[in-house]
Amino acid sequence: MPEPSLACPKCGTELAAFLLSCPGCGALVHADELKQLADEAARAAQPAEALAAWRRAHALLPPGSRQREMIEGKIGALVRIAENASPSAAAPPPVTGPHAPKSLWARITGSLGILGVLLVKFKFAILFLLTKAKLLLLGLTKMSTLLSMFLSFGVYWSLWGWQFAAGFVLSIYIHEMGHIAMLRRLGIPCTAPMFIPGFGALIRLRANLPTAREEALVGLAGPMWGLGAAVAAFALSRTLESPMFAAIAQIGAIINLFNLTPIWQLDGSHAFRALTRAQRWIVVATVLAAWLVSGVGMLMLVLVFAVWRAFEKDAAPEPNHRAFGEFVFLTATLSLLASIHVPGGSGM
Predict the structure, then answer these.
(1) What is the pTM (predicted TM-score) of this model?
(2) Could you give the 3-state DSSP secondary structure of residue 189?
(3) What percentage of the chain reaches a pLDDT higher than 90?
(4) Engineered SS bond to 309: which of 44, 111, 262, 332, CB 3.0-4.6 Å?
């Protein structure tokens, strides 16, 4: 079926539906809608609302046009505002956990003082839950999310029991909501999380991430929120003296470490796109050090692909200090949580 056509309101030239400007007089096809979007961006109360409007306008402008370049500048400025205002920009305080008495990790962290460190963890866990509660509940209003979540919960319940299954599914959900929170901040539409038993969960973007910087922001937001969930579970394990919550904290940390693997569509791959070659090699050294100290096997997978990506020619030309700092911080803290001793368990 041929695509529908329309006429240019200025010169009457017949236009194909996919054209963004008139080949006859150069007039913008979507001029009225562009004006509405500009007004919407000007009235926006939050940077995220303005970003969403400017992104829609950007898609309606022909490549290379002066207007498109101007809007790209506005989007870039708003992205920097959103990045600096993001709650995850400030890394949470380091965490520690109980370990086997003779482990190297326990000897290194033991001098920190378990009481003081726990107070820091409790503060971070409480602040995380209070500040993110509204968005976390919002995600549960989508029927597709609820149904797929209950399906996954049923599968995991049959394997591990309902308590661990509930904590496991909730950890995955919080990780995915971290991505959604950052996408909302950047004005990029997306779907609610969809759970797939045995795989985890996913969200689908309704617009592309235009820059490596934005890709890294969205990619690392998931593990940052996942870290918050793991810390909260660990705090509960210490408060309630619960091995089950300790196991949830440990498996949550391992899942988020896996997502830092810089390959395919995993979060670590999105982050690596924004790192220079030098930053990639420092990440490699960090992962190696974390593995030597903690002995967490998942770090070997991250290490192998981090080395491979360090040799790739797709490194960013300019350093991204935020993405680099978050990657290093996540590697260290998640390794620490993944290596905690779970009473009655074999550990990982």
Answers:
(1) 0.76
(2) coil
(3) 45
(4) 262
